[in-house]
Amino acid sequence: MTMEPDNHDGERLRILAPAGHPLTRRGFISLAAAGAGALMMSSTPAFAGTMNALEAAARKSLKQIGKTTKSLYLYTWGQYDNPTTFSAWKSATGIPIQIGSYDSNEALIAKLELAKGTAGYDIIVPTGGYVPEMAAKGLLMPLDKSKIPNFRNLDPSLLNFPWDRGNKYTVPKDFGTTGFIYDKTVITKKLHSWQDFVDAAALPQVAGRVSLLDAPDNVLAIALWIEGVDWNTTNAAKLRAANAYLIKKLAPYVKNLDSYPGATGGLVDGSYVLSQAWNGDARAALLKDPTRFEWVIPTPKSEIWVDNWALAKGAKNVDTAYAFLNYVLDPIVSANEMTYTGYNTAVKNVKNYLPKNLPEADVIFLTAAQRKRLESYIVNSSYNLRTQLYDNFKAAIAS
Questions:
Q1: Percent of the chain residues topping a pLDDT of 70
Q2: What is the pTM of this model?
Q3: How does DSSP assign 43-66, residue by residue?
């Protein structure tokens, strides 16, 4: 998989960025619980023996690790796990999981920095691009993979990302991609690329019915990918040029910045006919009306994002945390998570544990050809400029 940037413009300096990025794709889970996600889960029959199998996996993991404590503290995104994953763990092991939640990587980092290793959390869930900064600041504990036997269950092609070579600190939790979805009853020409997306936005029947992700890097990336520029660039001139292109070519036709056009119904009710989206949210729209919408992972490049399990520096229940990480990498547990989140967990052969008629499975599972075109984003020294440019773009939409 092509994970390294194609171009290296300027120094790749990682910095801890100030808060300012809006909520990310995990917000889809809480929205979906009352809407599209409920449809997803009701449309996905559980595999046989779910609770028994989950509890068996928990007991096995505890036995493999051996000595553990009777407590476990998890700090993660809200509603980002199947509740039965936790209830089965507690039922089988007798170890309750205390859960705290945050709504941005910046909030996670700020909390851990302030606590200086005394926050009390054992397991945290950072997004890949933030891992280098967290490691540099001493917020993460290196993993002892000998205590995670099920690490071998992970797909090697979804390991060893640029932000954590050798997975020194992280275990993949969920991953996905960014693309766009469109209404085929309105846009009759087949779309393939980010250039197609921009061109289609200007069509008379589409203009004013377009949504973009409320995420600065993903929006700016549209122009960078069209121009063949590494979306991790720190080159200020290239970033400004990309933003000027978006203000001229795309802003006049955008109705809203909406990170959940599928889950919130904007696509289904016709408010949008063309939406930039994360694959899990696009799947929500497809589940509602599969013949009406088309999902695209555009050329020439797009994003692969990964949220990760990691151990917080200062964790007190380390062996118990290893037992839990081993548990969630069991294919049965992984499948249980996927039926809830709609995102892939990077566990090999997880399809064997999912319902054979899992709807819109091709939106979850990327092909080898698709993966080859995807690149991960790493927070760098251009963060503040990107945020400023995004504010200018938002102002252009509102004007």
A1: 88
A2: 0.84
A3: TSPPPTTHHHHHHHHHHHHHHHH-
pLDDT reported for residue 24? 52
DSSP-assigned beta bridge partners for residue 294? 182
Read off the DSSP letter of residue 211: E
Q: 123: which 2 tokens?
A: 């397991």
Q: Alpha-carbon distance 26 to 173, whole Å? A: 12
Do 277 and 178 contact (CB within 8 A), yes or no? Answer: yes
- Domains of the chain by start residue, with CATH: 27-175+305-367 (3.40.190.10), 176-303+375-398 (3.40.190.10)
CA distance 151 to 144: 11
90 C-beta neighbours (distance < 10 Å), count: 14
**Beta bridge partner(s), residue 310:** 124, 170
Concatenated DSSP letters of 358-391: -TTHHHHSPPHHHHHTEE-----TTHHHHHHHHH
Closest to 296 measured CA to CA, from 366, 247, 244? 366
